[in-house]
Amino acid sequence: MTIYISVVSHGHDTLIRELSCLSSLSQDFHIVVKSNLANESFVELTHHENFHWIDHKYNCGFGHNNNIVFEYCRFKCGMTVDDYFIVLNPDIVIASDQIEHLIKDMTLNDIKLSAINLFKDSDSTIYDNSIRTFPSLIQFTKSFLGLGNSSILDKSKVTASMQVDWAAGSFLAFKASHYEELGGFDENYFMYCEDIDICYRSHLIGERVTYFPEIKALHLAKHANRELLSKHFYWHLTSVLRFLFTKVGLTKSKSSLY
After folding, report:
1. I need a labelling partner for 142 at 20 to 30 A (CA). Which of 99, 118, 237, 244 fits?
2. How many helices and strands, by DSSP H and E, does the chain display?
3. What is the value of pTM for the model shown?
């Protein structure tokens, strides 16, 4: 059983070098970085035996990039259905023992999709709101208007592993066979909601996300500007609408099978 970690870099090469997290992780796991912009450089990191760099096919969406990495792991690195595939943001700092602990628990309990406890500070006191319930149109609207988001789960009340609806794509761990069964991320999402979508499709086939509160990592999240008329607002809005309409279609399709 081998662990493969997928990282999409969109101008994050300097940050990745400064954090040194991937350099450290490459001592124990296969790290595959996919550049989404030209003129990035990871040449010095490729000296690590387990570090791989995909430097072509730029300006793809988040999901598409991770699907490219998955295929690379299968056909270039020899990943099998019994291995594990982790989607990791370049601004995540995590220790190897935390990942080893996670995969051990997933293996022992036959868990195919999981998430961990992300924090915004190195002292692990400020939670990243990375686990939530599947959102409704009303919840999305209130969130856009700055009126709060009732889909967010309160991590302070979670003391043991539990199943949740979805977790942020900043860290998701898949059994490779499950990622393949799901067909990976839906590439029709360019940015935003592709993590909700893949967790929802997993939910429909009976595999919910298992959240492990005891496994921790630092997330240096810097959210892009989503002001009205910005491209990020447009991407977010179109992704929300796509998810809501796709969710209805998927639910009806599933119901028709019974």
Report:
1. 118
2. 8, 11
3. 0.90
